[in-house]
Amino acid sequence: METFVRAYFNVGKFRPKAKFVRWLYQIALNLCRDRPKSLSRSPEKPSLPILPPDESFDAPIGDNKDPGLLLATDRRADESTDRREELAALENAINELPEDLKNVFILTALEKRQQGEVQELLGISPKAVETRLYRARKLLLDKMGKKGF
Q: Domains in the chain and their CATH numbers?
């Protein structure tokens, strides 16, 4: 949504010789690059979970009312925390990639775009898409390995 708003207010900067889709996509890429910076300036505080009015933190879990279920829930919470840490580390590793590798990786691996489409959007050859994707994956594997994931 923000991409289209920025495009609307900056339509005067669009050069008719360029492809509109490419210009629009560049705006979206710039917003993606700037997002981690803006989040680091004003981090959002995590909100507390909202319980339905008929539930409380003290109420037994489920119909079984078995206190042993609390231990299983705690185990899942630990796994969830580990998963969040791993995803945060991966996000940091992606943000540390060089821009040319990051753009190709985001478009192909995260947005599931075809390599031909990525080639057209970024204005690079098919071989460059393949090479940059390979290098990005290799760097991410190395970085995640060094972080213990």
A: 1-39 (no CATH), 82-149 (1.10.10.10)
